[in-house]
Amino acid sequence: MAKIKTAAKPKRRRIEFTYVDKMAKQVFVTGDFNQWDQKSHPMKKSTDGTWKRSILLAPGRHEYKFFTDGNWREDNFNRQRCTNNFGTYNSIVDVS
């Protein structure tokens, strides 16, 4: 009897998101990978005002933004972006 091979699942990769704001009280990374949930991925602040969060993402193109103290913010360190339905921009990360 022949064995049927199943396609291997693409491996997810750990992506680190960074946001800098010394005055922010709360920062979350949100995007299509978490259905734009404003609370599901809180970021951790270091003493120098840098916020970080690592997330496992599937291969592909992902749109994201930061949600900081109730406001949407783009990733100022990422030049890859696209327009969204609200007339602003989302940042893009490509995972290979």
Structural account:
This protein has 96 residues and is mainly beta. It has a single domain, classed as Immunoglobulin-like (Sandwich), CATH 2.60.40.10. Helices cover 0% and strands 47% of the residues. It is built from no helices and eight strands. Strands 2, 5, 6, 7 and 8 form a five-stranded antiparallel beta sheet that branches. A three-stranded antiparallel beta sheet has the order 1-4-3, with no helix packed on it. Strand 7 and strand 8 form a beta hairpin. It is globular.
Any key phrases for this structure?
mainly beta; Immunoglobulin-like; globular; 0% helix; 5-stranded antiparallel beta sheet; 96 residues; 3-stranded antiparallel beta sheet
As a percent range, the share of strand residues is over 45%
Rg (CA only)? 16 Å
Structural class: mainly beta
The total number of structural domains is 1
Count of DSSP-assigned helices: 0
